[in-house]
Specification:
Layout: E1 2-7, H1 14-32, E2 36-38, H2 50-56, H3 71-83, E3 86-88, E4 92-96, E5 99-107, E6 113-118, E7 124-126, E8 132-134, E9 139-140, E10 147-150, E11 153-157, H4 166-174, E12 179-181, H5 188-206, E13 209-212, E14 216-221, E15 226-231, E16 235-237, E17 243-246, E18 252-257, H6 260-269, H7 272-275
Parallel strand pairs: 1-2, 2-3, 5-9, 11-12, 12-13
Antiparallel strand pairs: 1-18, 3-5, 4-5, 5-6, 7-8, 10-11, 13-16, 14-15, 16-17
Helix pairs in contact: 1-3
Length: about 280
C-alpha cells in the first residue's frame, strides 16, 4: 500500500484552500499512484477570527449516511470517488450548534464515508516565545477511539496534539491498528524540537507506521491578524522508528510504501504488546 502525505500552507479562505488541496492531490496521484492520500489538520480554514472559523465550519451529514455535505466534505468525497483512492481528510471544523469540533472524515474508493474522528486532546498551551493557544475556548473534545480498514490494513486516527498522549496510541494498537494517521498543524517553536521525536516514539512504542501530513508556513490568527507559524516536515515513519519519507519546507507531498511484512517482523521479533504489564 502506498500512502501520500500532503503538506499545505492554508489560511482562512476555504475556497482557496480547497483549490490548493486539489492541486496537490492531483500531483501526488499522478506521480505516485497512492492507495491513500492524507491532508493536514484544519486544511479547510486555518486562522482568522472566531466569526470566520464558524462561517467556514461545516455541519457534517449523519455518519455513514452518504447524505450531501458542505463544500470541503464533498470535495473529499469527490476526489476519493473520481480517483478511486482512499482519502484521509486531515481535519476540518465541524459545526454542531454553537460548538465546533476538530474532526477527521475518511472516504473509501467509492466515495463513501467510512470513519469520523473528533480530536480528543485540545491544544491549550503557551509556547516558548510566550504565544498562547487555547483550542478548548472554541472546540469541544472527542471521546471515541476510531479505526477503519483500507485495502486490508487497519488504520487508526489521531490529530496533532494527540501525539503527546501515548495511551491513545496504545489503545489504537490494541484495536488492531497497523498504520496511524496524524494530521497536524504543529507550531514552529514546538515542532523544531518535538515533532519528529514524538512521531518516532509513538511508532516505536506501538510498532505501527505513522503518517503525519502537516501544515507549513505562516497564517494569521484572530481579529488582530496576529502571525502564527507552523512547522511542516510532513513525514511517514516505519514501525522501527525510521523516517522513510519526508517533505521539506514549502507545500508538497511525499509518498511511502506501507509494507505489512515489516510490521509483522518488528512485532514478531519484539512482542511488546504481549509483554505489557500495565493496563
Amino acid at each position: 500500500m502506498r500512502v501520500s502525505v500532503v503538506q499545505m500552507n492554508a489560511g482562512s479562505d476555504k475556497a482557496r484552500n480547497i483549490a490548493q488541496a486539489a492541486h496537490l492531490v492531483d500531483a501526488a496521484v499522478e506521480a505516485d499512484r497512492p492507495a491513500i492520500v492524507a491532508l493536514p489538520e484544519m486544511w479547510t480554514c486555518l486562522g482568522g477570527d472566531r466569526a470566520t472559523k464558524f462561517r467556514e465550519a461545516e455541519e457534517l451529514p449523519p455518519a455513514g449516511s452518504n447524505a450531501p455535505g458542505g463544500p470541503a466534505y464533498e470535495f473529499l468525497r469527490g476526489i476519493a470517488r473520481d480517483k478511486r483512492i482512499h482519502v484521509h481528510g486531515g481535519s476540518m471544523a465541524e459545526r454542531v450548534g454553537e460548538r465546533l469540533f476538530n474532526t477527521t472524515v475518511v472516504f473509501d474508493r467509492a466515495g463513501s464515508e467510512i470513519a469520523r474522528y473528533r480530536k480528543i486532546h485540545l491544544f491549550d498551551i503557551v509556547t516558548p516565545d510566550g504565544t498562547g493557544y487555547r483550542e478548548s475556548a472554541m472546540y469541544g473534545g472527542g471521546t471515541e477511539i476510531v479505526t477503519y480498514e483500507a485495502d486490508g490494513v487497519r488504520v487508526g486516527c489521531a490529530i496533532c496534539y494527540d501525539v503527546r498522549f501515548p495511551e491513545l496510541f496504545h489503545k489504537l494498537r490494541q484495536a488492531g491498528a497497523e498504520l496511524i494517521f496524524l494530521p497536524s498543524a504543529f507550531t514552529l517553536l514546538t515542532g523544531k524540537d518535538h515533532w519528529e521525536v514524538l512521531i518516532r516514539a509513538r511508532a516505536i512504542e506501538t510498532q505501527c507506521w505513522l503518517a503525519a501530513p502537516a501544515m507549513w508556513g505562516a497564517h494569521t490568527e484572530g481579529a488582530s491578524g496576529q502571525p502564527r507559524h507552523t512547522y511542516g516536515h510532513s513525514l511517514v515513519c516505519d514501525p522501527w522508528g525510521h523516517v522513510v519519507a519526508k517533505v521539506s519546507d514549502g507545500i508538497g507531498w511525499s509518498t511511502a510504501r506501507i509494507d505489512p511484512a515489516v510490521t509483522e517482523k518488528v512485532r514478531k521479533d519484539m512482542p511488546v504488546l504481549a509483554h505489557r504489564k500495565l493496563v
